[in-house]
Amino acid sequence: MTPLLDRYRGPIESGLREALRGETALVRILRYHVGLSDEGPGTSALGKLLRPSLVLFIAEELGGRIEDALPAAIGLELVHGFSLLHDDVQDRDEVRRGRPAAWVRWGEAEAINAGDLMHAIALRTALRAGGDVVETLAAAVCDMIEGQSLDLAFEGRFVTEAEYVGMVDRKTGALFRCAFQLGGRCAGVPDPVLATLGEVGLAVGRGFQMQDDFLGIWGNGDEFGKPIGSDVRRRKKTYPVVIGYAASSGEERDRLERIYASENVDAEDVDWIVALFERLGVRECVAEGVGAHSDRARRAIDRLPLSDDGTRELLSLIEGLTRRKK
Amino acid sequence: MTPLLDRYRGPIESGLREALRGETALVRILRYHVGLSDEGPGTSALGKLLRPSLVLFIAEELGGRIEDALPAAIGLELVHGFSLLHDDVQDRDEVRRGRPAAWVRWGEAEAINAGDLMHAIALRTALRAGGDVVETLAAAVCDMIEGQSLDLAFEGRFVTEAEYVGMVDRKTGALFRCAFQLGGRCAGVPDPVLATLGEVGLAVGRGFQMQDDFLGIWGNGDEFGKPIGSDVRRRKKTYPVVIGYAASSGEERDRLERIYASENVDAEDVDWIVALFERLGVRECVAEGVGAHSDRARRAIDRLPLSDDGTRELLSLIEGLTRRKK
Predict the structure, then answer these.
(1) Which helix (H) or strand (E) element contains residue A95?
(2) Is B80 on the interface with A (CB under 8 A)?
(3) pLDDT of residue B223
(4) B3-322 sits in which CATH class?
(5) DSSP one-letter code for A263
(6) How confident is the model at residue B222 (pLDDT cuts 50, 70, 90)?
(7) Which of these, A13, B27, B87, B121, could form a disulfide with B22 (CB 3.0-4.6 Å)?
(8) Which of A89, A109, A145 sits opposite B120 (nearest CB)?
(9) Mapping DSSP to helix (H, G, I), strand (E, B) and coil, where does residue A166 land?
């Protein structure tokens, strides 16, 4: 936990409790899902609260007030939460933050309902910060869902690096860009600053996702991380796969295609792919990609009117995100 | 088609085309789902456009303008459409308006994405009519989803009439109430009129849903209607079931409970239930319920400042809805 994330945890947790109050069956599922209920490992299930913390941090740094930006921050975290609820149904992921996913406990239909409710609550909450904030957030939701759809379509074929980046800018980048821009909007900054904030967000999103993809192959698979090879089993065209496929040829490429076209990927296949990627230098290449996007984010941050302390904190947070091990 | 529905079809269809423009895979699914694409039986798949027509009709009758109310009307129709997309996934309904449901053609995960996108587009579109309109619409979405969740929970047990009505006021009533209130909001009527509009909407919603439930048992099962007994097969606690269960006793009630607790309901069970309901006078009782809520709607409409022609048109529309055969 960096100081930046630590600082905003209190108001964000209160804001989430306020947005998810009530005693219907669905709202109780939402509190469980975001980690506000007592079941399971408690506060560790609340997650890093990364996106809403970025909203509040940027708003404060650029002259806004936490209380004015809080509805936007909470709206964004609820959007992120709703997407995870539906993702888990779509991907049949059974574990979320170390606990059974909502659909495992309450069934698929109710998990879809819970996500739909969370989506509506998210936009209603954001509305309290004004129409511009809702428009920014809802536009990000549209991009995120389009990215989700591309990610799904890519399970059926290999893709180029440009296609991959286009998908990631939507699936992951949209909410990071939104976080930085919501902070700026709530502080009332002019359009050129909003544009730079958007650049920072997209670069952070790319770095974050590429690191996530890295961990999907070389992660340590502990209780809060992805199991090793999990991305291979579901045929996700993650960054290592994009790089590895482009670098492969002949029999190796043929085998790669056969594995990704087959119904069942076994442990031997996963081991072979990991070994192939090592041989082709994919690991280094992915690390370079993550580094390049971190650098891009850093250069854009230099153009923002942040305090010196703020700049240091933000750079340290980004450094942590792109070097994280789970 | 009544004159009221006919009148607003043009602007609503244009508004839907505008909201669902673009060439991504998901937006194409949305155009198919609402019946704007050429595939299948074409315009008949566009549906009655009942809810958005009510928004525009009420707005005009109360002194507003179509063009000002159109974003609210389109937002509401898109909300209705997104709920149908997810409903079909949840209920495994394979046919929607005479064509394969979206999840049958594009898979469950993509149908969930399509619904999520439609939800976000709905609220973005409504935002063009102002923050109050978004708040009204998003609040209706929350109620609708809670009703959806109750409907699902009721599959596991028998319920009282009060519980049934509470569920219907959310699942179906929320969007009808919203239609009337959005029309009023866009015309800028004062709060007491908004309250009466809400009463009309809830009463229409109850009558509409009870007639729907009637058709779920005694419908003729043609290509656009529900198959006979379909509601029984999925253990839905529809109005006839609520009435029939309350009126039953002894061995008949035991058999009713056994059937609704069993995994598979066969044709013989359905026939027995339909015959039991006839014997217990459920058919007449349901028709009376529909009539009572139509009367309630009529009395509330009398308190609205509508034109004489407008009153006649609205009453005729409601009459048609609560006597419809499919």
Answers:
(1) strand A95-96
(2) no
(3) 47
(4) mainly alpha
(5) S
(6) low
(7) B27
(8) A145
(9) helix
- Cα gap B130→A131, rounded to integer Å: 8
Report CA torsion sign: B84, B89, B95, B101: positive
A272, A231 Cβ separation under 8 angstroms: no
Q: Which of A281, A80, A97 is nearest to A175 (CA)?
A: A80
Q: Shortest CA distance to B116 belongs to which of A113, A166, A124, A179? A: A113
Q: What are the domain boundaries of chain B?
A: 3-322
Nearest CA-CA partner of B46 in B57, B32, B56: B32
Model pTM? 0.95
Task: Write the DSSP symbol of residue B262.
Answer: S
CA-angle at B225, arms to B219 and B230, nearest 5°: 65
Q: Contact B301/B211 with Cβ under 8 angstroms?
A: no
Query: ipTM of the predicted structure?
Result: 0.95
Give the number of other Cβ atoms within 10 Å of residue B141's Cβ.
Answer: 26
Closest to A148 (Cβ–Cβ): which among B108, B113, B152?
B113
Nearest to B147 by CA among B164, B169, B171: B171
Residue whose token pair is 């990609």:
A289
Residues A286-324: pLDDT tens digits? 999 999 999 999 999 999 999 999 999 999 999 999 887
Whether pLDDT at B43 is above 70 = no
Provide the 8-state DSSP code for A304.
S
* A137 half-sphere exposure, CB direction, 13 A CA radius: 37
